[in-house]
Design brief:
The chain is an alpha/beta fold. Helices cover about 30% and strands about 15% of the residues. The protein folds into 2 domains: about 90 residues, no CATH class; about 190 residues, Rossmann fold. It is globular.
Length: about 290
């Protein structure tokens, strides 16, 4: 059943992409590693909050990724994976994913009334290049990047032992799709809470199976094939469900907010290519 589901999606995407190649004029918005504050505008009702480009449609996820899932016997229907719009996955201008666009929307909303004369300390873990460029042009941020393995970041750091940062160092953090890679995710969550200032906030996102009733982990999985099948990637060690993810964050001391279409609005989600079932998990550290 799942193979048929994946095949149907691939066929749909392939037909759509083939039609675009036949009928579409040469693209007027180029993919680029960095982008100007306001990207080239063309006719359309879709827009990217990361690069400000306007166009007719977002780009579907690469069919090769779907082929990998099919070959490994991925265990879950794609339409049950939260905040994953595989049909409108990336921006044709800056390549920002649907979740990147969701983060930019919230950042703009959250900082709309910020006193721009007061700089905020922001730490971005495992930064996405397009989103990093978006944050770097924000004048009121002291922006830093960090990761254990990525090259070119400001700080080389293990999320479970961030001893290079003192308590309450940052006003804002972004931790997107990292915790599913970490064996001791609870310890990492506690560290995130420790380095956040009182009244600070963060965005914390992981892959979530919307139909799951528990976190899938601690399975006797040792092969690449099994990790792809049960976790969705060969370097993942778990697959979260909503309640389990929120419970772990709350146990670490965070106040957790779940922001979906009711918060942002149906029109906003459609305009920016965000699936209506998407949820943004933001966390806050309340002052004692």
């Amino acid at each position: 059943m799942f193979k048929a589901f994946i095949t149907a999606i691939k066929n749909t995407l392939s037909e759509s992409q083939a039609q675009e190649e036949i009928s579409a004029p040469p693209p007027t918005v180029a993919i680029q590693e960095t982008f100007p504050p306001v990207a080239t505008q063309i006719a359309g009702d879709r827009s990217c909050p990361v690069c400000n480009a306007v166009f007719e449609k977002f780009t579907p996820i690469d069919a090769g990724f779907l082929t990998m899932l099919e070959n490994y016997g991925y265990n879950y229907p794609l339409d049950e994976i939260e905040t994953f719009n595989f049909q409108e996955y990336s921006c044709p201008s800056c390549s920002a994913s649907d979740r990147d666009r969701l983060y930019a929307l919230y950042f703009n909303e959250r900082t709309k009334t910020v006193n721009h004369e007061h700089k905020l300390n922001f730490i971005d873990f495992a930064p996405a290049p397009n989103l990093s460029a978006f944050f770097r042009k924000t004048a009121f941020l002291n922006y830093r990047t960090a990761d254990l393995f990525m090259e070119g970041v400001d700080d080389v750091v293990d999320l479970t032992d961030m001893n290079i940062y003192t308590d309450s160092s940052f006003d804002i953090f972004l931790c997107s799709h990292i915790l599913e890679h970490i064996e001791d995710d609870r310890k990492a969550m506690h560290e995130l809470h420790r380095i956040l200032k009182p009244n600070g906030w963060g965005i914390t996102m992981v892959p979530i199976w919307t139909k799951g009733d528990h976190i899938i982990e601690d399975l006797p999985i040792t092969t690449v094939e099994e990790r792809w099948k049960y976790y969705g990637q060969d370097d993942h060690v778990r697959f979260y469900n909503r309640a389990g993810f929120v419970e772990r964050l709350e146990t670490a001391g965070f106040k957790v907010n779940q922001l979906g279409v009711d918060h942002f609005g149906t029109k906003v989600f459609k305009q920016h290519g965000i699936h209506p079932g998407s949820v943004l998990y933001t966390v806050e550290k309340k002052e004692k």
